[in-house]
Amino acid sequence: MHLDFFPSRTLTLYLAKLFIVRILAVLVMLVLVLMMLDLLSTSGEILAVEGNGQGELLTYAGLRVPQLVQRFLPYSVLLATIITLIALNQNSEVIAMKAAGLSAHQVLAPLLLTAGLVALVSFGFNERVVTRATATLKAWEATEFGAVPPDSDVKANVYITDGTNILTARTVAGTGADIRLGDVTWYRRAPTGQIAEQVRAVSASFVDPGWQLENPQSFDITTANTTTSEAMVVGEGLTPAQIELEAIDPDAVPFWRLGSAIDSYEAIGRRTAELRAKWWHKLSGPLSAFLMPLLGAVAAFGLARSGQLFIRAVIGMGLGFAYFVVDNAALAMGSFGGYPPFLAAWAPFLLFLLVGETVLIRTEE
């Protein structure tokens, strides 16, 4: 194996340009197709709300596209790898490069460099754009596509206990004493443990102590009577800090803020395995793009006229998709506590890095 990892500057730029163009082409194709399918299944719910129209459909698409880009960028890198390497192989360019003395790793080096830059851009895009879009979209979905939240600081679907009682809210906006809860439900339990009363309100605000429900409607389970009042204070044991902590969504919180939230959870003795696994996966997830050229490398070598090029492409695609299956399974096991969080996030990446290197060295080097 040659120690000079990169080929000439001209060849490096040529391969990198081919690769990045195909990544973008495949990504645009996947996102457009999946966005159209998503709109077909969701547009009915959006347009069912009075006043919603084309603007709301465009808003939904604008919030959904970043999520699709985040999810399918590694797939795009894998497919672009196979397409690029097959074309190079069929045009005998790989044979020419190897005849010039380049090793398999040197042939792949420009693709690995490009994929590494894609992974770096993906991390920044995920933490600056996708998290905000996810927070806003979840809050909008929680209101059943009613009023669009004015900012991405809105959180959705909070569930918190105050002793034996339960407080739920579909949306949480603001911070500190200015927190506003939307679509609030308060469940009061009897000493026997059964729910004795259910109180619903459009919104609630912090009044120190407790949360004041606006125009609450109370349903008494025992008497089956419904009453309405102007205001009611509940959850006097709940503070804004507890609400904010409970509203943490790892998919909607940037990497640097999620770490401090996990520390706060650990300080009060809460279980953090799921949050910690997703925190690590915010690093390993984008880095999977760097792995794809290595897993798809088998499509670059072997004679195109031997009839085995298609089989090699299928093997490369199989290795890539096997990584995504193992990665999702490991992350699920980490969320349930079956694996340590670090292992759940990084084991699939390290395992398939070794697999890809082993296949490349044993077959080509």
UniProtKB/TrEMBL annotation:
Entries under Pfam families matching the protein: LptF_LptG
NCBIfam families, A to Z: LptG_lptG (TIGR04408)
GO CC terms, sorted: ATP-binding cassette (ABC) transporter complex
Lipid bilayer topology: Multi-pass membrane protein
The organism of origin for this protein: Erythrobacter litoralis (strain HTCC2594)
Signal peptide annotation: none
Primary location class: membrane
Transmembrane feature ranges: 12-37, 72-88, 108-125, 283-303, 309-326, 338-361
GO biological process, one term: transmembrane transport
Name of the featured protein: Predicted permease
Organism superkingdom: Bacteria
Annotated localization: Cell membrane
UniProt KW keywords: Cell membrane, Membrane, Transmembrane, Transmembrane helix
